[in-house]
Design brief:
Shape: elongated
Oligomer: single chain
Number of helices: 2
Strand order of the largest sheet: 3-2-1-4-5
Number of domains: 1
Strand content: 15-25%
Amino acid sequence: MNLTLRARRIAAIVLLGVAVTVTLLGVLLMIAAGTEDAAIEGHTGRADADVVSVTAGRTLVRFHTPDGGEHLPSVGVLYPDQLEEGQVVRVEYDTRNPDLVRVAGRGATLTILPVVTTLLAVWAVVSALVWWLRKPGPLHLRKLRPRRIAV
């Protein structure tokens, strides 16, 4: 086996490994979102929360529970799309763990479309690259030759 063919096989295996890893992470993300939602739905508390901070990584909210406790979950709120600082928003939280909080009316189903879209894009790119890598030649261009007609 020549060096180029071996390098192509290794590249194809690495690409497939990356695609499988991204797929597993996407599936785990959807499972985690469903698990967190189930925890909140099992012991639901509701409150009005002030949006304290909105960054690319997380959105922080502050809310009060009926026992008088003030909570500012350090990991942020789940499903924070379109929230702005200073906004008051209704949240649902796990009464056993008030740091697990989501925007009311939003749930794990919001993770399905972005995860599935990402996985489709990853597999489309990886499939194309693996297909390209299996072809012989540096650029896989073939000379155009007229076909011979058998007589």
